From TrEMBL:
Coiled coil: none annotated. This is Phosphate-specific transport system accessory protein PhoU. The keyword Cytoplasm applies. It comes from the Bacteria.
Length: 238
């Protein structure tokens, strides 16, 4: 596990500002994580009440993003951070955008759950959603833990896991197409499952983005648009 030593400042208020940013990001992340779990539960159980709650709570996630963005702007303007402190603020700005978009994807899954509750279950695809959902939930939980502990190794594992999610998504698509071919009357309902799987794939992408932000925060490396193998090589060279 990596240790990020944020600079100590004469102003204890500056230290508390940075710690508050970290804590509030984790609160927002926990809310998003719960949204994803609830959205998947709603889809699997056709529970429109849970799904509606997911949609309503999305407003709270949006407010967290706005509040944290304002706090980051204030820190940049008033404290003029440098080095690791600056990376911390920039990382928070990037992370909250990814977290907000993950919340949007959870909301999409919840909307699919409501539509399937109204129209009737799809003939298949739920096993694929369950399996892929478990992989994505693990990514989200792991990447938030990696941020809490500034753990580059764990962040790298999350980036690697995204490839597995992509493979599972492609496999699920091939399987689900067979349901539509066998019974064209179910196409509309099966498309709801496809959109839910697509949302999960996007949540996996955002989790990888956050993993890359953590690597930037701790090591100062910009690894965006870089393969996992290349990221690993860069980390080993330091």
């Amino acid at each position: 596990m990596e240790n990020l030593h944020l600079d100590k400042h004469i102003s204890q208020r500056f230290d508390s500002d940075l710690e508050a940013l970290k804590s509030q990001v984790l609160v927002m992340g926990g809310l998003v994580e719960r949204q994803i779990i609830n959205a998947l539960t709603a889809l699997e159980t056709a529970d429109s009440i849970i799904a509606c709650n997911v949609i309503e709570v999305e407003d709270d996630i949006d407010m967290h993003e706005v509040k944290l963005d304002e706090q980051c702007t204030m820190v940049l303007a008033c404290r003029q951070p440098a080095a690791s402190d600056l990376r911390m603020v920039l990382t928070v700005i990037k992370m909250i955008r990814d977290l907000e978009r993950m919340g949007d994807e959870a909301q999409k899954i919840a909307k699919m759950a409501i539509e399937l509750s109204d129209s009737g279950a799809a003939p298949g695809g739920y096993d694929e959603v369950r399996h892929m959902g478990a992989l994505v939930q693990d990514m989200v939980h792991s990447v938030l833990d990696a941020f809490a502990r500034f753990d580059v190794d764990q962040a790298l594992q999350v980036a690697k896991a995204d490839k597995k999610v992509d493979r599972e998504y492609a496999s699920a698509m091939r399987e689900i197409v067979t349901y539509m071919m066998e019974d064209p009357r179910c196409i509309t309902r099966v498309m709801k499952i496809i959109w839910a799987l697509r949302a999960l794939e996007r949540i996996g992408d955002h989790s990888r983005n956050i993993a890359e932000h953590i690597i930037f925060l701790v090591r100062g490396l910009d690894v965006r648009h870089t393969s996992v193998n290349e990221i690993e090589k860069k980390l080993n060279r330091i």
